[in-house]
Amino acid sequence: MGSKVADLLYWKDTRTSGAVFTGLMASLLCLLHFSIVSVAAHLALLGLCATISLRVYCKVLQALHRGDGANPFQAYLDMDLTLTREQTERLSQQIATFVVSTATQLRHFFLVEDLVDSLKLALLFYILTFVGAVFNGLTLVILGVVALFTVPLLYRQHQAQIDQYVGLVTNQLSHLKAKIRAKIPGTGSKAKAE
């Protein structure tokens, strides 16, 4: 699955990547102008019209004695969608593990188990208030989809230059971090212990 996603984002098959990108962008742009209920209803109606049309076409071919009239979706109708007891237990355990780990992290941050981590989260939320004032969530999702389909390709084409600049920024940040730790009392010993 991971290699399929990578192939999609690196545009190995331009038709597939283009179709997925166009579909995502069209859906997101529709959501900018219409409610999610309306978009979901229209997409469901479009899918239903396509399947009904195909089924009626097969019946017409049967009436003209040019086909057997079998349901073209019979293979999908015959698929067994039930879960075994083991699959159900594994899935419920995965969901429970995710819920417990999320609750543990939220407790860690919001009940201030570590003051520095809670302050970092507070700073992140403070920055997000400014981002939220400029962009709505759907605009950020659209920008994210565009970045998802362009940044990996750009990085692959200009990897040497990007790595050089990232190295410079990382180096400067580590120097700045060392200076800050040296200035703040009590963090110098923590930095040495790390």
Automatic annotation (TrEMBL):
Q: Where is the Reticulon domain?
A: 5-194
**Transmembrane regions:** 20-45, 124-155
InterPro entries tied to this protein:
Reticulon, RTN1-4
Membrane disposition:
Multi-pass membrane protein
Highest taxon of source: Eukaryota
This protein's UniProt keywords: Endoplasmic reticulum, Membrane, Transmembrane, Transmembrane helix
Name where it's found. Endoplasmic reticulum membrane
Using the UniProt record, give the first listed, main subcellular location.
endoplasmic reticulum
Q: What's the protein name?
A: Reticulon
Naturally occurring in which organism (per UniProt): Mesocricetus auratus (Golden hamster)
Gene responsible for this protein: Rtn2
